[in-house]
């Protein structure tokens, strides 16, 4: 299940509590320019009126609290899913998750 939260200290603490209760959190990230372009396309497709500034606010929260995110999720559960020329399919993402689980 995807559980998107603003990356505030309070929400990251909630994520850590969910992990402690048995959840398996992952953090998907990647090339920011490609991700923002994909976000813009999704906004058009879904007819959302999110301004570009909203993207920047979300990304800034992640940057501000990156250490907390890493602590809550774990280094081996940070997965790059988008690069400038490529967006991973769900199948590839799942395969990479399985590899990361095996290494952990």
Features:
5 helices, 59% helix, globular
Structure, described:
With 104 residues, the protein is mainly alpha-helical. The protein has one domain. The chain is 59% helix and 12% strand. The chain is built from 5 helices and 3 strands; from the N terminus they run αβαααββα. The protein has helices spanning 9-20, 32-45, 52-64, 66-73, 90-103, and strands spanning 27-30, 78-83, 86-87. Strands 1-2-3 form a 3-stranded mixed β-sheet. α1 runs parallel beside α4. The two termini are 21 Å apart.
Low-pLDDT runs: none
Q: Let me know the number of strands.
A: 3
How widely separated are the two ends? 21 Å
Considering DSSP H and I runs of 4 or more, what fraction of the residues is helical? 55-70%
Count of DSSP-assigned helices: 5
Q: What does the average pLDDT come to?
A: 89
**How many separate structural domains?**
1
Order of helices and strands: HEHHHEEH
Task: Describe the structure concisely.
By secondary structure, the chain is mainly alpha-helical. Helix content is about 60%, strand content about 10%. The protein has one domain (about 10-104).
């Amino acid at each position: 299940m995807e559980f998107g939260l603003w990356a505030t200290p309070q929400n990251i603490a909630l994520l850590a509590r969910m992990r402690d209760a048995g959840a398996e959190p992952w953090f998907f990230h990647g090339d920011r320019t490609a991700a923002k372009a994909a976000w813009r396309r999704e906004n058009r497709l879904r007819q959302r009126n999110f301004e570009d500034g909203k993207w920047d606010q979300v990304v800034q929260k992640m940057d501000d609290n990156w250490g907390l995110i890493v602590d809550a999720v774990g280094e081996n559960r940070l997965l790059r899913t988008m690069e400038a020329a490529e967006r991973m399919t769900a199948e590839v993402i799942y395969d990479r998750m399985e590899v990361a689980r095996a290494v952990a």
